[in-house]
Amino acid sequence: MDFEQVLSLRRSVRQFQNKEIPETLINKMVRAGECSPVGKADFSHYAIAVITDSDILSSLAAEDEKITGRGNPVFDAPLVFLIMSRDGALDDSIKLNAGIIAENIHLEATNLGLASVCVYSFIRNLKNRKEDSSWLPRMDLPKGYHPEFAVAVGYPATEIKERPCRARIPVFR
Q: What cofactor does this protein call for (predicted)?
């Protein structure tokens, strides 16, 4: 797929098929995240966790639904990329770098015929809590890593059609 087509298909999708994503495709999205530019080349302070375990995803959803009273924060996606910072990352660029990593993953997901959505609400809820999460320790992540952003990915429940790029953002020259 050429880049213009990727851009015309890229959008946030919140309904996914109940279908597993092959490891080969997951690896391509991981690679896209790994190839992201990071401010001041601070790569050592960022990591990507891949969540495909349905029990962990169910626990994440149940925990967040209990806190917020809203629906599943990852929209029943079979795959979630958790973008993390590590102790020592520069505070003023963590969200920016996490967003850049996320967008690379989104673009590759689109390129592969998958759908995705940025997810932050459950991470914000994690950061605002005093008690520990029930699902995060089960991931057995190295100490010192903190979730900053997430991307939920899956096969779209409905067909995604190309849309022409419309100028919606003011540009000043």
A: FMN
Do 147 and 84 touch, CB atoms closer than 8 A? yes
Please report which confidence band the pLDDT of residue 127 belongs to, taking 50, 70 and 90 as the band edges: confident
β 46-51/115-119 pair status: unpaired
In 3D, which of 29, 24, 80 has the Cα closest to residue 53? 80
* Residue 46 β-bridge partners: 85
Nearest to 99 by CA among 116, 118, 81, 115: 118
- pLDDT class for 124, splitting at 50, 70, 90? confident
The candidate with the shortest Cα–Cα distance to 72, out of 148, 135, 138, 152, is 152
Spell out the domain ranges in the chain. Answer: 3-154
CATH architecture of 3-154: 3-Layer(aba) Sandwich (3.40)
